[in-house]
């Protein structure tokens, strides 16, 4: 297997690391498992350009991306469109897609698990022309991120503190907006405070991460018209893992979702995989089952089978 990695040196974990030492460690680990490995470390502003170049190189087999969720989301879009496998190296704050793929969050452990892993096909979704591997959100989350972007932070913990401060500010006046939804052909109109549509439904943990990345269904999460008090209760139910029993949240599974915002403001925003975008008046969301190839760790049963059969990795 040939692996070409692009590491975002401005990613949370990489900012304080000796990247020369790390890239050599990565090369040693992959070569130990019989693979060829090369890498480049680029500034955040150059990551997308580098990823696109590597994805279209002749003979490139696996595109590895190292960075936060924004870097990984961009890499997934590029790998999907170029039809090359993606390897995810978690170096951000939340690392949501890496968690969904069951990749260890400690970097050396992640390298080992990927070097001994295998390529599988997983789901990817689109909102109009934008792909996502986590979620698209309208309402509360974009408002919170807009507030967070007005704050200054210089570390992973600084970002978390800024997010908490932004959450408190957004909670003081939750958004409310009208939306016409068509979910798998069934129309409805609501006034809500938040809508999130995820690439596979969320699992049972506090973090919004799916248990299965191959379910082939969108998770649609609708929060009714919230007050500060009901939003606080919803937050507590998320923390305790009981949010599915909260009367203010509705969960629907679907293949396709159309959203229309009849009174959309020109400044309205959405987030796709945590990145702010302008909110279109009409959004069509689809899941593309098993269309993204990814390098993932072996499951315990697969490790046992490989050891029994004496099969070489990949």
From TrEMBL:
Name assigned to this protein: Diacylglycerol kinase family enzyme
Record-level Gene Ontology MF annotations: kinase activity
UniProt keyword Iron-sulfur, yes or no: no
Origin superkingdom: Bacteria
Residues annotated as domain DAGKc: 52-131
Keyword annotations from UniProtKB, A to Z: Kinase, Transferase
Coiled-coil regions listed: none
SUPFAM superfamilies given in the database record: NAD kinase/diacylglycerol kinase-like (SSF111331)
């Amino acid at each position: 297997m040939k692996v070409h990695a692009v590491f975002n040196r401005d990613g949370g974990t990489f900012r304080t690391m000796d990247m020369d030492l790390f890239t050599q460690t990565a090369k040693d680990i992959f070569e130990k498992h019989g693979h060829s490995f090369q890498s480049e470390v680029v500034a955040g502003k150059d990551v997308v350009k580098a990823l696109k170049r590597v994805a279209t190189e002749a003979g490139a087999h696996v595109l590895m991306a190292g960075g936060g969720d924004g870097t990984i989301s961009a890499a997934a879009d590029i790998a999907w469109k170029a039809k090359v496998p993606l390897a995810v190296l978690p170096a951000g704050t939340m690392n949501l897609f890496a968690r969904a793929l069951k990749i260890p969050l400690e970097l050396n452990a992640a390298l080992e698990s990927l070097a001994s892993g295998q390529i599988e096909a997983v789901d990817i979704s689109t909102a109009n022309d934008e792909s996502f591997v986590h979620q698209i959100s309208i309402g509360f989350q974009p408002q919170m991120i807009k507030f967070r972007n007005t704050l200054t932070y210089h570390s992973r913990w600084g970002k978390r503190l800024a997010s908490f401060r932004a959450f408190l500010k957004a909670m003081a006046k939750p958004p409310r907006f009208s939306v016409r939804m068509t979910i798998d052909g069934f129309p409805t109109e609501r006034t809500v405070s938040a809508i999130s549509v995820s690439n596979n439904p969320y699992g049972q943990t506090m973090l919004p991460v799916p248990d299965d990345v191959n379910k082939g269904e969108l998770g649609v999460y609708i929060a009714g018209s919230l007050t500060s008090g009901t939003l606080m209760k919803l937050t507590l139910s998320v923390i305790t893992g009981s949010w599915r029993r909260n009367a203010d949240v509705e969960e629907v599974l679907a293949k396709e979702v159309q959203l229309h915002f009849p009174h959309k403001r020109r400044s309205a925003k959405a987030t796709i995989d945590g990145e702010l975008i302008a909110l279109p008046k009409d959004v069509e969301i689809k899941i593309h089952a098993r269309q993204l190839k990814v390098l993932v760790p072996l499951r315990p049963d697969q490790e046992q089978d490989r050891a029994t059969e004496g099969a070489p990795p990949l």
